[in-house]
């Protein structure tokens, strides 16, 4: 979503949504994750559309109620509508540049910017920035994360799993 | 899609029940493996896949709710086995025993069943991306992306075990015989299949089957396995509501918490 094109009231909402963090990665907001697809204010009602990262993610209901709570505390709307939509599908390239930094801060490598035609991908170590890393398990502790290992600093680490419509 | 058309809606609802019930029961069978998979990394991977799969089931049930079929939890938990449309192959127990005591689960069967099913599901999702029912096309696009890693996972296991020592090969062949005997049930679109294709909800069953064989043939060749001329529906037709006692037992366990208080909000 392109922020500067939004009307003033929607911009304020985006500011509030910036305070809503991923319940499992509390350094990054749902805005930085690219989960906010639409914010619309109509008179006394606000309509927010969110994109789930993965469909089976158990954090979705928590995120929804955190969004409702944040809006209720900072704004005066009679109606707050928060819905998950599936179009367009969330893809890992929706994570913003700021979001990529916040993930690293948490010790999670941001999703790779390129995926080879063979589906292969590579990420650097979020701790020592070494490129000498191996994938330990595509599947990690949450649906959106993979487990890797850095052969330079000998730390296991996680990466945000790349997800793209070319897959 | 012309939603005013009752025949079309009937076919769509039938298709959604098949998609939802397939994912729901296989995700449950996957969850029973937790702590029992061959190694700890597999425990992480398989439970992650099962969680995704249950998420897909929830989405398909949601589409049914949107069409007036009732509450999502009720659709998932409260329907008796005779109303379920899942393929019978997907409801079979993981093996003898119980996950809490003396499980003698069959890993070869898990690998074959999941690999075959996920490939069939991927073909259906590719087809559904062009479905005339737009909400389903949108969900299919999202599901399809997530399947990429599932498929890669099961294909890796399949090829490695097929090419491993004779013990592994024998176990895989036993599992293959079981899977082929009921795999027609997985590829089947049931008695509404013709309507589903006519209303362009999904491609015809025959087309899906051909695509499955085309995707599988090179993999089969690489592990020296012959594609059967026909698959079977040996244990019955799940799309018509025929099921085994395995499904009844699974639904009883799955619904235990739900039936404590169906009105509770979790």
Automatic annotation (TrEMBL), chain A:
Pfam family, one: FeS_assembly_P
Stated name of the protein: Ring-1,2-phenylacetyl-CoA epoxidase subunit PaaD
Residue ranges of every copy of the MIP18 family-like domain listed in the record: 13-74
Organism expressing this protein natively: Cytobacillus eiseniae
Domain called PaaD zinc beta ribbon: residue spans: 110-161
Automatic annotation (TrEMBL), chain B:
Span of the signal peptide: none
Domain of life: Bacteria
One Gene Ontology molecular-function label: phenylacetyl-CoA 1,2-epoxidase activity
InterPro entries: Aromatic_CoA_ox/epox, Ferritin-like, Ferritin-like_SF, PaaA_PaaC, PaaC
A UniProt-annotated Pfam family: PaaA_PaaC
EC number: 1.14.13.149
Oxidoreductase among keywords: yes
Top-level class of the enzyme under EC nomenclature: oxidoreductase
Keyword Oxidoreductase: yes
PANTHER family on file: 1,2-PHENYLACETYL-COA EPOXIDASE, SUBUNIT C, PHENYLACETIC ACID DEGRADATION PROTEIN PAA
Protein name: Ring-1,2-phenylacetyl-CoA epoxidase subunit PaaC
The species this protein was found in: Cytobacillus eiseniae
Lineage: Bacteria, Bacillati, Bacillota, Bacilli, Bacillales
């Amino acid at each position: 979503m392109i922020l500067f094109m939004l009307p003033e009231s929607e911009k304020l909402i985006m500011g509030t949504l910036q305070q809503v963090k991923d319940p499992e990665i509390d350094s990054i907001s749902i805005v930085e994750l690219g989960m906010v697809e639409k914010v619309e204010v109509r008179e006394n009602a606000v309509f927010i559309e969110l994109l789930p990262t993965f469909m089976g993610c158990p954090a979705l209901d928590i995120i929804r109620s955190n969004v409702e709570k944040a809006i209720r505390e900072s704004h005066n709307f009679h109606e707050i509508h928060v819905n998950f939509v599936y179009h367009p599908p969330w893809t890992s390239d929706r994570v913003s540049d700021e979001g990529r930094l916040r993930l690293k801060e948490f010790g999670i490598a941001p999703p790779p910017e390129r995926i080879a035609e063979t589906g292969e991908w590579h990420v650097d170590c979020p701790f020592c920035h070494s490129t000498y890393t191996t994938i330990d398990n595509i599947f990690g502790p949450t649906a959106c994360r993979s487990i890797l290992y850095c052969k330079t600093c000998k730390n296991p680490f996680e990466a945000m799993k790349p997800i793209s419509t070319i897959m | 899609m012309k939603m005013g058309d009752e025949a079309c809606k009937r076919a769509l609802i039938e298709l959604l029940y098949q998609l939802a019930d397939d994912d729901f029961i296989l995700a449950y069978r996957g969850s029973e493996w937790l702590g029992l998979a061959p190694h700890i990394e597999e425990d992480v991977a398989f439970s992650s896949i099962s969680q995704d799969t249950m998420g897909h089931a929830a989405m398909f049930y949601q589409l049914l709710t949107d069409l007036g079929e009732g509450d999502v939890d009720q659709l998932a938990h409260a329907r008796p086995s005779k109303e379920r449309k899942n393929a019978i192959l997907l409801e079979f127990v993981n093996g003898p025993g119980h996950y809490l005591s003396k499980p003698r689960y069959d890993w070869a069967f898990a690998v074959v069943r999941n690999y075959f099913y996920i490939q069939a599901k991927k073909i259906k999702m590719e087809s559904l991306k062009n479905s005339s029912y737009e909400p389903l096309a949108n969900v299919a696009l999202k599901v399809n992306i997530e399947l990429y890693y599932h498929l890669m996972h099961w294909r890796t296991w399949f090829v490695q075990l097929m090419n491993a020592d004779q013990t592994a090969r024998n176990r895989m062949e036993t599992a293959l015989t079981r899977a082929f005997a009921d795999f027609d049930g997985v590829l089947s679109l049931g008695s509404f299949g013709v309507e589903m294709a006519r209303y362009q909800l999904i491609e015809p069953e025959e087309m899906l089957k051909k695509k499955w064989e085309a995707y599988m043939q090179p993999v089969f060749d690489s592990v020296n396995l012959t594609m059967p001329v026909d698959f079977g529906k040996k244990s019955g037709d799940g799309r018509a509501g025929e099921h085994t006692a395995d499904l009844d037992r699974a639904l009883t366990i799955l619904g235990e918490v739900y039936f404590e208080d169906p009105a509770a909000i979790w």
